[in-house]
Fold:
Amino acid sequence: MCGAMFRLPAYCLLAVTILALAGGIRSANSQAAAAGDDYTTRIQPIFDSRCIACHSCYNAPCQLNLQSYSGLARGATKLNIYDRSRTKSVAPSRLDIDGRSVSDWRAKGFFDVIGGTEPARTLLMQLVGLRTRHPILQPKKPVSESNFCPIDSDSGAHIAQSAPELGMPYGLPPLSQAEIGGLSEWIARGAPGPSDASLASRRAVPPELATEVRAWEAFLNGGTPREKLMARYLYEHLFLAHLYFTSEGVSRRPAFFRLVRSRVVCEAGVDEIATRRPNDDPGPGDFHYCLSRLDGTIVDKTHIPYDLSPQKLDRIRRTFLEPQWDVKTLPGYSEETAGNPFVTFADIPVRSRYQFLLDDAEYEISTFIKGPVCNGSIAVNSIQEQFFVLFLRPDADSMVTSPEHARQAQDMLVLPGVWGSDVPILDSIPFLQRVTAHREAYRKLRADAARKLRPAGYTLEDIWNGDGRNPNALLTVLRHFDSAVVTRGAVGDLPKTVLVLDYPLLERLVYNLVVNYDVFGNIGHQSLTRLYMDLIRMEAEELFLAFLPPSQRLRLRESWYRGGPLTDIKLRYVFPLVNGSAPTGVIYRDAANAKAELVERVVNDYLAPQVRGRPDAVNWKVLQLPQGAGATSDLTAPEQALRRIASIKADSTTPFARFMPELAILLVRSTDGRAQLYSLAHNREHENVSWILGESERFAPQEDSLTVRAGVLGAYPNIFFVVPESEMEAFSGAIAGLKSAADYKQLVDRFGVRRSNEKFWSVYDEINSSHLASNPARTGTLDLTSYALEKN
Structure:
């Protein structure tokens, strides 16, 4: 819907441009087709370009999701999915999953926004018209806090009188007269949806992919107990994936699919089984794993792509089915069993499970960084602003090398999800004590096993090297307050912390934060999930410390966890270092600088160039560039200018970073008209990330910095800057000179694009189009729910 009901808008000229290039827009030769499906050719592109930047995923205002006609027809609701105070879980409301018809959604409390044939009486057009009448009024609250949900035309009229600034698009330039006219004429005709032929075409398997789709479905629906258990493991790890086939190439947007459980065979048409979690009981009778084609525009914040190919199919088949193993009894779906993957999949060799996760580690990490909650500060406030992720080599993991160790550990690795979505508040503390006690027993077991497996300590070769070719071996995570992003390679300068994940850590992250997690659950469930994530993070940091000299470990760890006596107590008594005096097998030139030295050796020397990617010459200042790499003099002129503001601590002499927003997107225009996008990510540092509440009291602004990267490093930009290449020195100089909020306002006045700017949509379209074209398979429409508000 256009910037629709209760927040912002976005992405369509872009969609129109792409469709036009593909020959998909109505032309003289397609009048007949357009007449038969006016919605697809004229209406959805408006929603795509001006509305879904806010109206998509769970954080869509009032859950009005405009990525497809089914979301528009579903309508809106007053239910706030992110209510942190609820003591009881609520029924899921996943689009196209938990309701199959409009009547289903009306029964669940969703109300119509386009009913009737009088455009002026529909909620949609009332709010669109309100913005047209008050084009410069700015809302007082950001989208995430503006939860007004008028349920009918009378309440919409009341909003027009009491809060005229709440018209749609929310705080952005109004729709054009042509767009408003198109929507009005369409509603006057009864707001018809896509034609049956169009719907069938969009949901069908493209003929050119039919062979590959059926091959994967046949593989996933094998009849032996081994194949059934393997398929369940794959499904529980891929249910969030946007699956696509690399045979379609990379020059255009491919067809995307979801892996679902269906009551009927795939060839008969998918009848999805809608369970709350992917590891819930699918019910009586047989079911089938099917690839169900996605119907709707892809948005970046929920897009977690996973590529399929004959080579990938062969790789997975060999990984799981070539080893010799048997299934004693297929596991059930009780919460105690299904909530613990180490029990559920005990029959599958640990090496097979771990190798599958490593092969596509970026995807696995993205599942709990980008989903399943869309965004939210509580969801990501247990991680640092910028950190690298490395992985333990399978042969250095006792869980992989010792079946007896794996058997002893499996019951100790119990996760909060075994208690379901409704955890009584009073039970949360004893439940946490239980999982903590189990986890502490496991840590001691693991430390004993590590001493036996690596008596001289871990060496550099115990870091997984991507088998010499896989770029998933080194990842960077950047947090932007209530969202985060994962990217390959070492992006940004030396981070405060580095995580090293082994199989138990990686698997627990996936199950704690994705498979077992229920965004519709109660406060007890959500709190336990967050608290356990804190414990997992500290374990991963501890594994990294095991590679450093014993004399440096406690000092470094204490620098990560400052903040007073409560934090000290947590470190000393809740999470003391285990085996902190164990040796390291890494020989250091300078033990006092061991962290930087280890990272440099891993990134510059140990990992092959095709694994580590290009050195980050813009940001690396503490980290040294590898010998033979392109020097900073090889950077382009804009990059040279940006390097001057990258990775500089915001102390009293250079405070500029602390005044920048979480994520700024810079569009640099060259003299010949070409455009290049860069991201300026604000690393908002903390004294510690140990506690759920009071985050702002634990900021360490003097340590803030900016990470600069070509392309778009996040789905939720806060501001756009448009700078001619000839003014890049002035732009970077203006940032370097920031000493106050007033200085930042002047920067925006000169180079920024405010929400009320009449050119906002043209800039957004250009940035979004460039972003989508950069990698059609891996990008989606950018979100505007976090775009900076203006003061009236």
Remarks:
- The chain has 30 helices and 13 strands.
- The mean pLDDT is 91.
- The longest helix spans residues 425-453.
- The two ends are 26 Å apart (CA to CA).
